[in-house]
Amino acid sequence: MNANTAVYSKLIKAEALRLGFAQCGISKAAFLEEEAPRLENWLKQSMHGTMQYMENHFDKRLDPRLLVDGARSVISLTLNYYPEETQHDPEAPKISKYAYGADYHVVIKDKLAKLLAYIQENIGEVSGRAFTDSAPVLDRAWAKKSGLGWIGKNSNLIAKKTGSFFFIAELIIDLDLEYDENIQTDHCGSCTRCLDACPTDAIIAPAVVDANKCISYLTIELKDQIAPQFSGKMENWMFGCDICQDVCPWNRFSVPHAVEEFIPKPGLLEMKKEDWQDITQEVFSTIFKNSAVKRTQFQGLTRNINFIKKA
């Protein structure tokens, strides 16, 4: 291994923090042996629901060298999105905290592009690709492998000092670096708050989520009508769900983010129950311009609002 690997790693981590990332860990690009049987079993039991794309590129999900030619290192990063305040009307249909501001895909891709450019300018000819929840990469597995946290019983990555309200992203590059050890042990202990709090019983075992029952899946990914069995169980969520994170004791360490793009859209938090129930295509397009909520489209969001309204 090049003697400069330690120097390069420190440079990269310092720049990542300067760009606003909360954490940065590095692991060797190799086959994810532990994850292979888990992913295969999860897919075999159809726990991915209608997310057919999860079945694609099985090998690439487990081996980054199939995604990036000559891949040597996976740089894992987290970006805090915990808001300073939440929706004001306690009776208003709820939106997951991560979607209050601008679409995280765009925000993170921009930061990753800057990080890669910094690496190329300060280290040399380095090739790589940026990933954030938009390609076959098991981001939580890589973040865990690089020591950024452990996988909680709600299947989210949890960091001891910051909780779990953060996005995970990767830069996979063809450069040898100094690799971090997965020294984070599981600190969930005997706590079962997330399992107990899930109103649809989507967490069927520690760290195993059946997407077919998950409120986030039902309100975002599912394009068909929501099954009647979930009537009265949605806890007023119209886009995503934060229940299993809100009840997690480790999130008492969450602090408000400092990412300008994640500041809530003007008027969003002030919208009352009636405003949501009377929402028009025009208001939707205005308030959710450049937002992750656009993924559901107007029809999807109104479907969700009408479903929880009838309950």
From TrEMBL:
Instruction: Provide this UniProt record's keywords sorted from A to Z.
Output: 4Fe-4S, Cobalamin, Cobalt, Cytoplasm, Iron, Iron-sulfur, Metal-binding, Oxidoreductase, Queuosine biosynthesis, tRNA processing
GO biological process per UniProt: tRNA queuosine(34) biosynthetic process
Please name the top-level EC class of this enzyme: oxidoreductase
Q: How is the cofactor bound?
A: Binds 2 [4Fe-4S] clusters per monomer.
Required cofactor(s)? cob(II)alamin; [4Fe-4S] cluster
Q: What is its EC number?
A: 1.17.99.6
Q: What is its main location?
A: cytoplasm
Q: Where is the 4Fe-4S ferredoxin-type domain?
A: 179-208
* Binding site residues for tRNA: K223
| Binding positions ([4Fe-4S] cluster 1) | C188, C191, C194, C248
Reactions this protein catalyses = epoxyqueuosine(34) in tRNA + AH2 = queuosine(34) in tRNA + A + H2O
- Protein residues bound to [4Fe-4S] cluster 2: C198, C214, C241, C244
Q: Transmembrane region positions? A: none
Extract the coiled-coil ranges from the record. Answer: none
Query: One Pfam family this chain carries?
Result: QueG_DUF1730
What are the GO MF terms of this UniProt record?
4 iron, 4 sulfur cluster binding; cobalamin binding; epoxyqueuosine reductase activity; metal ion binding
Asked whether the UniProt record includes Transmembrane helix among its keywords, one would answer: no
What is the annotated localization of this protein?
Answer: Cytoplasm
What pathway is this protein said to act in by its record?
tRNA modification; tRNA-queuosine biosynthesis
* Active site, renumbered: D133
Q: What does this protein do?
A: Catalyzes the conversion of epoxyqueuosine (oQ) to queuosine (Q), which is a hypermodified base found in the wobble positions of tRNA(Asp), tRNA(Asn), tRNA(His) and tRNA(Tyr).
NCBIfam families per UniProt: tRNA epoxyqueuosine(34) reductase QueG (TIGR00276)
For this chain, the family text in UniProt reads:
Belongs to the QueG family.
**Record text on subunit structure and interactions:** Monomer.
Which HAMAP family does its entry note? Answer: QueG
Query: Per its record, how is this protein called by name?
Result: Epoxyqueuosine reductase
Q: Which organism is it from?
A: Pedobacter quisquiliarum
Gene symbol? Answer: queG
